[in-house]
């Protein structure tokens, strides 16, 4: 038997709430999460990668808006 201690109190509370919502133990919740883990799949983008995507989208949206403003004579 292995005992795991979670030092992050916020994480521990979050896991407890999730287990309560699912009406299961924290151990069962972690088992379900581990079963969904697929190594080798495309990882979730990092925050800096997400920020870069948002910047590109903003620039693109601003360029479209600027084009529209110019087309209606609002420079």
What is this structure, in a nutshell?
By secondary structure, this protein is an all-alpha fold. The chain has 3 helices and no strands. The protein is elongated, with a radius of gyration of 23 Å.
Structural notes for this entry:
The structure is a single chain. The protein has 75 residues and is mostly helical. It has three helices and no strands. It is elongated. The mean pLDDT is 88.
Secondary-structure blueprint of this entry?
Blueprint: H1 9-22, H2 26-36, H3 47-71
| Gap from first CA to last CA | 70 Å
Strand content: under 5%
Mean pLDDT over all positions: 88
E-strand count = 0
Helix content: 55-70%
Integer-rounded radius of gyration = 23 Å
User: Can you count the helices?
Assistant: 3
SS class: mainly alpha
SSE run: HHH
Shape: elongated
Low-confidence stretches: none
Can you summarize the main beta sheet?
none
Record keyword descriptors for this entry:
75 residues; 3 helices; 0% strand; mainly alpha
């Amino acid at each position: 038997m292995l005992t795991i201690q979670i030092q992050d109190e916020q994480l521990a509370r979050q896991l407890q709430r999730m287990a309560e919502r699912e009406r299961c133990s924290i151990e069962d919740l972690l088992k379900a999460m581990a079963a969904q883990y697929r190594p080798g799949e495309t990882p979730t983008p990092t925050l800096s990668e997400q920020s870069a995507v948002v910047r590109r989208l903003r620039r693109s949206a601003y360029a479209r808006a600027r084009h529209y403003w110019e087309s209606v004579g609002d420079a």
